[in-house]
């Protein structure tokens, strides 16, 4: 968790998860050259945290079969913090061997979703995290462990998820050895009041070990929920370029919060993200060209940045073109 005062510059971080959370949810298998170009362009646009893939069997997610190669490429970019998702100890061992900076272990607070998605109970996942921590320490690795509590606001299978259970599992992850914890609205059930209430309680428990918020725009409340989280002092968020992704157990889901829309929200509110939105929108056009058969989301790309936006000079060409086209 990052806190800020009026005298300090307000900073926020967007972790790009499109290469994992986004691509695993669509049919198109993007070739590795395109993924490398995506990472390079995102880096050039100022993004410094990218989740590049997941260490899962290729037969289950062929879209992510090249994760090890992508970690190796991403680690060659100075200052880039490279994350991967791992579902179990075997995946964690691969992540450790790859030299990734952080591995995210997903846990569903919904017992029904956990069994459907991971074939484990939430407490089984906590026990797996303890094994992963032991393996990480035994290897002398510096890879951080993030425990991500999903379906934190409800579940399409189970329905209601008790906030007390969410917090119990979050504490259990920390007790099991997770270095960081995060909360995710996996199926888009949250509203700003729910986010404010749960995030206030979560950050009071986890303190600086609370890493980020992960919101989906399933029902159009993604950015509103980000704003509610900001009010609690959380300033790191996951997002997918072009709003791709989403949970397969959330029918009709429109995907994750769009990176470009989130960067605009934060920048407009005066938060420093280090992101050149013009370059980010140019990257979105390239990704759209690679994913011609997929449905993309987001709104900023349609109208471009307003003339009043305090953007760097690099954004000027895009603004002029967007104003001309629209």
TrEMBL record:
One of its GO terms (biological process) is ketone body biosynthetic process. This is Hydroxymethylglutaryl-CoA lyase. InterPro entries: AIPM/Hcit_synth_CS (IPR002034), Aldolase_TIM (IPR013785), HMGL (IPR043594), PYR_CT (IPR000891). GO terms for molecular function: acyltransferase activity, acyl groups converted into alkyl on transfer; hydroxymethylglutaryl-CoA lyase activity; metal ion binding. Keywords: Lyase, Metal-binding, Transferase. Belongs to the alpha-IPM synthase/homocitrate synthase family. The keyword Metal-binding applies. SUPFAM superfamilies: Aldolase. Residues 12-281 form the Pyruvate carboxyltransferase domain. The keyword Transport does not apply. The lineage of its organism: Bacteria, Pseudomonadati, Pseudomonadota, Betaproteobacteria, Burkholderiales.
């Amino acid at each position: 968790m990052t806190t800020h005062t009026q005298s300090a510059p307000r900073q926020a971080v967007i972790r790009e998860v499109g290469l994992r959370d986004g691509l695993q949810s669509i049919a198109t298998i993007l070739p590795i050259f395109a993924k490398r170009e995506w990472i390079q362009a995102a880096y050039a646009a100022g993004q410094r945290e990218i989740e590049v893939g997941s260490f899962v069997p290729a037969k289950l997610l062929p879209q992510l079969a090249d994760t090890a190669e992508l970690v190796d490429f991403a680690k060659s970019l100075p200052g880039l913090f490279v994350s991967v998702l791992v579902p179990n100890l075997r995946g964690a061992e691969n992540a450790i061997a790859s030299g990734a900076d952080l591995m995210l272990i997903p846990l569903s607070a919904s017992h029904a979703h956990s069994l459907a998605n991971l074939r484990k109970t939430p407490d089984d996942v906590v026990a797996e995290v303890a094994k992963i921590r032991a393996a990480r320490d035994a290897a002398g690795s510096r890879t951080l462990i993030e425990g991500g509590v999903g379906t934190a606001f409800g579940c399409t299978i189970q329905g209601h998820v008790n906030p007390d259970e969410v917090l119990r599992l979050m504490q259990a992850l920390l007790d099991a050895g997770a270095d960081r914890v995060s909360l995710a609205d996996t199926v888009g059930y949250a509203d700003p009041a729910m986010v404010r209430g749960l995030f206030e309680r979560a950050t009071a428990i986890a303190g600086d070990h609370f890493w980020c918020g992960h919101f989906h725009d399933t029902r159009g409340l993604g950015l509103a929920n980000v704003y509610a989280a900001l009010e609690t002092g959380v300033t790191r968020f996951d997002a997918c370029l072009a709003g791709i992704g989403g949970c397969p157990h959330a029918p009709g889901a429109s995907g994750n919060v769009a990176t470009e829309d989130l960067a605009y929200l934060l920048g407009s509110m005066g938060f420093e993200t280090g992101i050149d939105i013009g370059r980010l929108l140019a990257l979105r056009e390239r990704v759209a060209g690679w994913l011609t058969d997929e449905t993309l989301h987001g709104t900023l790309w349609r109208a471009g940045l307003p003339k009043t936006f305090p953007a760097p000079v690099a954004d000027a060409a895009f603004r002029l073109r967007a104003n001309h086209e629209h």
